[in-house]
Design goal:
This protein has one domain. It is built from two helices and no strands. The radius of gyration is 16 Å and the shape is elongated.
Length: 69
Amino acid sequence: MDEIEKLERLLHHWKEHNDEHADGFRHWSAKARSLGRTDVSAVLDRLEEETRRLNRLFDEALEKLRAGT
């Protein structure tokens, strides 16, 4: 495997791992909300949103890598 292939696999792996974190934030946001901690839930919601936004950067990097630019 050359370095470009390795980077592509790493980007894919990092994106998947990031998705797992975002799912966890959503899960714990709901729990915090159910416990009456809407303040904490709001922060966890923001964390999920920002994590999903980062995934778009992983997608952009993968697209550029595959396009050769």
